[in-house]
Specification:
The structure is a single chain. The protein is mainly beta and 429 residues long. Among the domains are: 58-139, Thrombin, subunit H (Beta Barrel), CATH 2.40.10; 146-246. The protein has three helices and 39 strands. It has an eight-stranded mixed β-sheet, with no helix packed on it. Strands 3-36-35-34-33 form a five-stranded mixed β-sheet, with no helix packed on it. The longest helix has 23 residues, at 9-31. The protein is globular, with a radius of gyration of 26 Å. 34% of the residues are buried.
């Protein structure tokens, strides 16, 4: 049936109403993030392409680095109990098998760090040879230690330093008790703590282990998952000196740690002494590498930058900067998961609400984005977390490049890893 009016007003009204409603629905859906290909940049609407997976793995992938610093993918298939070594382009370089410790239920007994993959197989501590793809027994004992001392718990730092806990039954007339040792990447004993009872470290020993730890050549931090009791271990002395404090652990770099204590973020040395504090504070990381450039602190609207020895480099006042204290109260470790980062020639600083982009040498403002957190760096892009997903932006000016609407399980220098339900993983570069 055709609608006729004297001047066609009714027809125009109906058509106009349908078009107006469609436009309104499209706008609402776009704001909700259903059209991530369009994103608002400094110059208005800018094109941000949808990201596609560039590589797939039949198993759980870990990006490690060999002695010559060349990257290699180590892919663990828990069902088949196999490990494959892949070049960055996906070409297989070696394949080896493993024991029950490679099953999905036991993979938590493996420790993966920048240069190492270690797994506990019964009483043996095994290390994967990244060059040949073979397992070998790891000899972690310092040169003057009896080899019969069994390592019970162990951990590896990003710089290759190692910490392990062992029990020495001493034999006739010997020392009997627990040994906690910090060892350098080359195997040199840095510091050691001997105690007849682990309860001397913490009153409640249930749940204490090296499962939750942060280690470097200067010391370590031990903590329980989802609890606020921390043990700082200063390795500057031949005998490890433990310091206990309450707080949420945010990170370790050099001889200092960042901790959230009842809403105040503090930078402390490994002896537990406060060096600086503010509404927010944390580490400054270098791109995707586990290299720490220093620390930052925000107090009110002032941002201060420190080097790795806690020397102040600069301090600037940003009237538009304000730390989201309400968010930090609900999620006390949130800024620890999103530290400040150097991406290219830009320093990105999180406030809990916004991302502030500064010149690294002076602190001069480059750009600022609301409702964003720093997710990381990838290639020549800065990755921000937003209500629409992960946004890749140009760190120099904040202009959008692409959007990824996926839950990223792991970050690497080679790309972002997404876990699928069938045991496979996908890499987004």
């Amino acid at each position: 049936m055709r609608i006729r009016t004297k001047d066609g007003d009714l027809w125009k009204l109906m058509v106009g109403g349908v078009l107006w409603f469609a436009a309104l629905v499209s706008l609402v859906l776009w704001q909700a993030g259903y059209f991530p290909a369009l994103s608002v940049g400094k110059g208005g609407l800018a094109q941000a392409a949808k990201k596609e997976a560039s590589m797939k793995f039949d198993g759980e992938p870990f990006l490690l680095y060999r002695k010559d610093e060349s990257p290699i993918w180590v892919v663990v298939n828990s069902e088949q109990k196999t490990v494959r070594g892949l070049a960055p382009d996906g070409a297989e370089q070696w394949q080896t098998s493993g024991g029950e410790f490679l099953s999905s239920a036991s993979l938590g007994r493996c420790e993966v760090s920048f240069h190492r993959m270690l797994c506990k197989d019964g009483d043996k501590l095994l290390e994967l040879d990244l060059e040949k793809g073979a397992w070998r027994e790891a000899n972690w004992h310092p040169a003057d230690w009896p080899e019969e001392i069994d390592i019970n718990l162990y951990g590896v730092g990003a710089d290759g330093s190692r910490m392990f806990m062992a029990y020495d039954d001493g034999g006739p007339g010997g020392y009997r008790g627990w040994i906690l040792a910090l060892v350098s990447d080359s195997g040199e004993l840095i510091s050691v703590l001997k105690t007849e009872s682990i309860s001397q470290l913490a009153p409640d020993t249930v749940g204490w282990s090296l499962d939750y730890h942060a280690i470097n050549q200067h010391g370590a931090v031990l903590h329980k998952n989802e609890e606020d009791l921390l043990i700082l271990l200063d390795g500057s002395q031949k005998e490890l000196a433990p310091a206990k404090l309450n707080g949420v652990f945010l990170g370790i770099a050099g001889r200092f740690v960042a901790v959230n204590q009842e809403g105040r973020h503090r930078l402390l040395n490994l002896s537990g002494e406060v060096q600086a504090e503010g509404d927010a504070a944390g580490l400054v990381l270098e791109g995707t590498r586990p290299e720490t450039k220093g620390f930052f602190r925000i107090e009110g609207s002032r941002i201060e930058r420190y080097d790795i020895e806690m020397k102040s480099l600069w301090s600037v006042d940003m009237p538009d900067v304000q730390v989201d204290k309400e968010k930090l109260a609900k999620h006390p470790g949130s800024l620890g998961h999103y530290p400040a980062r150097h991406c290219g020639e830009t320093l990105l600083v999180p406030t809990g609400r916004d991302v502030v982009a500064l010149e690294p040498g002076t602190g001069k403002l480059k750009w600022q984005k609301q409702d964003r957190t720093i997710a990381g760096c990838l290639g020549d892009s800065a990755i921000l977390s937003s209500p629409r997903g992960l946004e890749a932006v140009d760190p120099a000016n904040g202009e959008p490049k692409w959007v990824l609407r996926e839950f990223v399980k792991r970050w690497t220098a080679e790309g972002l890893l997404v876990e699928r339900s069938n045991g496979t993983w996908e890499l987004y570069r």
